[in-house]
Write a structure and sequence with these properties.
The structure holds 2 protein chains of 2 kinds. Helix content of chain A is 73%, strand content 0%. Chain A has 12 helices and no strands. Chain A is globular and about 70 Å long. Chain B is mainly α. Chain B starts with a helix and ends in a 5-residue tail after the last helix. The chains are: A mainly alpha, B mainly alpha.
Chain lengths: 291, 282
């Protein structure tokens, strides 16, 4: 008995780190489980905070609230546009920073880092001050787009840059030796190889944009995005459909994430022409500081 | 010749966007913070009193923001390190599953995650009953206390702590750890003398990425706190969007930014800047 107890104790001690690790993972997932669980709730009043009973009504009525649909549509439109713009100009910036030595490179690096080190409330209020004082922009979709592109750029640069740093330039040399023009080399060799980085950056930008509340809260005017709708509804009780839509978005993102990992594996296979090349572990898109 | 202008062409659009919509707005924020007058007829007249007024009126909220953010950062570090260590060294084929679990919270909207904590920490919830039983929930309440706000901040920014620590642990050359063992270091000596110092860049990056957004946050205080748990973000938001007292709000924003910048610079002086600027930028 004593010996067996000692064995269990030893097992616990040897696996203490893993046990804590797994507990922390559970802690991270609990709210998602709560959101999922409460999407099947049948609340008695307007507040979806206590469990009353199981129903599928809100899943079948997921898109039955017009204002919510409109907010979601605005958010999606905004996120797609902001992602496209930020990904293109961010990728170009990353290329400049990795491929060239030039005057002002340090300043450019600083310019990219500093928005990530600024609290959102400061960025939001600074942009609002700017928009109010110059008066050329009407607060609304336009100003939201400007703001979202602004805070996405830095993250795109960081993700794409980390991909470019690990890039084997010999592959481009080989393409040139085989008679490819610079543009062909870029389109047929460089772009496919850094595509997983670009795709990861785009996913991160999309996630940041669709999730942004603080900066949007300052610069939205009367336009309502998905997070702004939730914030507005929080005072008078949030409809259960919000949980349903949150879960739908969650599953979509998971699928996109799976696709990105698959694509990255494929690109790694493509790049591993040289036998000694180690395969790198896929750092997920949400790792801005992983460089 | 072409090589010399090429980087500027590539850099151009992004740099212009950041200059025009990040740097220039900061200037306007500064200008607005030195205005005086009532809403609708502000006037720029170097009104520095905005700063002294803002600081004397809202010093408690400032202090509270940094205390809450500091504690949340500390708790996040204590939770994140074992998890990052597990993923990097112990997870085996579960590694990608665990990494996925770390970023999964990002896939649900920030506000909804915070509202989920409102549910979890509400008075009727089993979690609070357990906390009450072990004496961690005075009078059976957790919601609308400072503890709830700190818990929310810790939760919401935890992935920002885990990922950089994981990235730096994952990069450690396994042979260094082997060498420690070969030289008869105990497991804990190897950890404290080899692994921990080598993961320092990740810890620095993680603490900054957690502390900075946490100190400016107002969503957690809004949903999980009460009026006596307001942080500086709540004040700025309310002055800007509800009371339309732009100069005071601008002054507070500027002070927040300056305070964070100073704290970060001090921190980097001690901890090194590689983590923040990226290796090749130093």
């Amino acid at each position: 008995m004593g010996e067996r107890g000692g064995g269990a104790w030893r097992w616990l001690r040897e696996h203490a780190v893993q046990i804590v690790g797994v507990l922390v993972v559970l802690y991270m997932l609990i709210p998602i489980a709560v959101i999922f669980g409460f999407s099947f709730n049948d609340p008695a009043g307007r507040y979806n905070f206590t469990w009353v009973g199981f129903t599928l009504d809100h899943w079948s009525n997921a898109f039955g609230i017009p204002e919510l649909n409109e907010a979601l549509l605005t958010s999606l439109k905004l996120a797609v546009l902001a992602t496209l713009i930020a990904t293109v100009i961010g990728t170009l910036m990353a290329m400049a920073l990795v491929r060239y030595e030039f005057f002002g490179r340090r300043a450019a690096n600083f310019l990219i880092v500093i928005p990530m080190a600024t609290p959102e409330v400061v960025m939001g209020s600074a942009l609002l001050s700017f928009f109010l004082l110059i008066g050329t922009f009407n607060l609304g979709f336009e100003t939201l787009l400007i703001a979202h592109v602004m805070f996405c750029i830095s993250f795109v640069v960081v993700v794409v840059r980390s991909r470019l740093i690990g890039f084997d330039r010999n592959l481009e040399e080989a393409a040139k030796d085989l008679g490819a023009s610079p543009f062909e080399t870029f389109r047929l060799v460089t772009l496919p190889l850094i595509m997983p980085g670009i795709f990861g950056a785009a996913m991160l930008a999309f996630a940041l944009s669709i999730d942004d509340f603080v900066i949007s809260n300052f610069n939205s005017g009367t336009t309502v995005t998905f997070p702004l709708y939730i914030f507005g509804a929080a005072q008078r009780g949030i409809p259960v459909e919000v949980n349903v839509i949150a879960m739908i978005l969650f599953f979509f993102t998971c699928a996109a994430m799976g696709f990105a990992t698959w694509q990255q594996r494929r690109a790694e296979k493509m790049a591993s022409v040289r036998p000694e090349q180690e395969s790198t572990i896929a750092v997920p898109a949400g790792a801005p500081a992983a460089t | 010749m072409r090589r010399r202008v090429a980087p500027y062409f590539l850099l151009g659009p992004g740099a212009a966007w950041l200059l025009l919509f990040f740097v220039v707005p900061l200037y306007y924020l500064f200008e607005l913070s030195l205005n005086s007058g009532v809403f609708g007829s502000y006037e720029f007249n170097w009104h520095w009193e905005n700063y002294s007024d803002a600081l004397s009126l809202y010093d408690t909220q400032f202090e509270r923001s940094f205390i809450y953010a500091g504690l949340a950062t500390l708790f996040a570090l204590l939770l994140a390190y074992p998890l990052a260590y597990t993923i990097a060294f112990k997870a085996g084929r579960w590694r990608n599953v665990l990494l996925f679990a770390v970023v999964a919270p990002f896939f649900t909207t920030y506000l909804i995650r915070t509202l989920a904590w409102e549910t979890i920490l509400s008075d009727q919830s089993p979690v609070v009953k357990v906390l009450d039983a072990i004496g961690l929930a005075p009078e059976g309440h957790v919601l609308a206390t400072g503890g709830a706000v700190i818990a929310g901040l810790t939760y919401n920014f935890l992935p920002f702590m885990v990922l950089p620590i994981y990235a730096s642990l994952e990069r450690i050359d396994g042979r260094l750890i082997e060498a420690g063992k070969d030289l008869y270091a105990s497991a804990s000596q190897t950890f404290f003398r080899v692994t921990l110092p080598l993961s320092a860049p990740g810890v620095v990056a993680g603490t900054l990425l957690t502390f900075i957004p946490a100190s400016g946050d107002y969503v957690n205080a809004q949903f999980l706190g009460s009026a006596s748990n307001q942080m500086i973000g709540n004040v700025i938001q309310s002055l800007y969007l509800k009371q339309s007292d732009y100069p005071a709000a601008a002054a507070l924003s500027f002070v927040l930014m300056a305070a964070i910048l100073i704290l970060v610079l001090i921190y980097i002086r001690f901890a090194g800047s590689e983590a923040l600027m990226g290796e090749e930028a130093v």
